[in-house]
Amino acid sequence: MQEKKLMDNKALIVTEHLTKRFKKLEVVKDLSIRFNENERVALIGQNGAGKTSLIRCILGHYVYEGNIEVLGKNPRKERVEILKKIGFVPQIPPPLKMTVGELMDFYGKLSNTPNSKFIEICENLGLSVKDNYSKPFFKLSGGMKQKLLVSFAIGKNPKILLLDEPSANLDPKAREVLFDYLDNFRKDGLMILSSHRLNEISTLVNRLIEMDLGSIVIDKKMTPSSEKNYSFNFSIELSEANEELENLLKTWNFEQNSNPLHWHANIKNSDIVKLSNILNKFTDSINKIETIKKD
Fold first, then answer.
1. Is the domain of 155 the same as that of 238?
2. 31, 110, 141, 291: most buried, per Cβ within 10 A?
3. For 25-72, what is each residue's pLDDT tens digit?
């Protein structure tokens, strides 16, 4: 019997009555949804909402009920072909025994990507490949594993990018670099970011999907005018004078109040994550930070 085709020219992922059960527990419930070209999707929800199970069904990791098409193919029957065009970073890194070098060779051959591309991204994220080339993956720190997996996912320039808690285990500088890469992801592709923290990824996305108990409870567009182009009154109270921090604040157009330890500025929403990541290194000198959205 010929399978029913679900796709059209713009849809890259389509599910129809998708259900995933673990014994009697339904973690994804009769879910029908389309993900399209040029969409940057925030997939949010609490633990147990079904986000990771949905992603793993899309990847063909799980047996499921209903239908899924990814790039016009069945992810269970044509998984190898699909994975060549998908970049994926899991929330929990797998316990791989291969070395960093062996993994680079494996992913490079799988996606026809030169190792130099992966190395470039790793170095930008703060991971020295040369110093860790012969180390088994499972012996790396959590942050090092995340940086390496991010380099594999982004370096292959995939048509679909799936990131499950993308900033987990990353230091502030690496998060800033990661978000720059995501902001420049290919325009004809699809990016799905599963996260607990919408505020962290809100400037990257144009569609919001919230899951709860295996079902979609919110699915809405996020337009640049309503979600990105606003600003905050950003106030910082220092606990002590810090010349390096004060010079940094001046470059962001902060001004002092009458109290020399009080600084304030108007910061665009699109810059909030970047600034917050930079300020993380000065936590010992900062007593309080307040942000108030401007009308």
1. no
2. 31
3. 999 999 999 999 999 999 988 888 899 999 999 999 999 999 999 999
